[in-house]
Inverse folding.
């Protein structure tokens, strides 16, 4: 597949990913975050036309989205943290001056969101401010 064809295909996929992240279906959210994480693990994902779209996809989760994710909040929070952590090693690829502050803001917003969601737990900080935590423990197993 040529690079231009891949870019054209991705342009069609970005709106679908955004819709799935806000669909109200927790399973769609978790599956989409996993797919994004896999895609964003490669430097090839960060071509110039995609960088702004990547930030938009990271920004999609907001208070309204988190509300319907509450039934799977621990899994969603871990998935979100892992997704943003996947982007951190590629920050140097956000060469455009206007995108660097945006991606930094997304990282800070993610940390703040996770700290609010888990205010009763100790969250250690890793990866330039991205909170990391142990996988959730099923309350029924205790």
């Amino acid at each position: 597949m040529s690079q231009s064809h891949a870019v054209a295909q991705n342009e069609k996929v970005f709106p679908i990913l955004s819709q799935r992240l806000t669909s109200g279906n927790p399973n769609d959210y978790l599956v989409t975050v996993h797919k994004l994480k896999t895609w964003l693990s490669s430097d090839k994902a960060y071509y110039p036309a995609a960088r702004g779209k990547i930030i938009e996809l990271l920004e999609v989760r907001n208070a309204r989205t988190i509300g319907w994710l509450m039934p799977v909040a621990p899994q969603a929070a871990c998935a979100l943290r892992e997704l943003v952590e996947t982007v951190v090693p590629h920050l140097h690829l956000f060469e455009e001056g206007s995108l660097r502050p945006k991606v930094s803001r997304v990282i800070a917003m993610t940390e703040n969101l996770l700290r609010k969601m888990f205010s009763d737990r100790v969250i250690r900080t890793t990866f330039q401010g991205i909170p990391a935590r142990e996988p959730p423990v099923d309350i029924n197993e205790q």
Q: What stands out?
A: Confidence is low (pLDDT under 50) at residues 122-142. The longest strand covers residues 124-126. The chain has six helices and two strands.
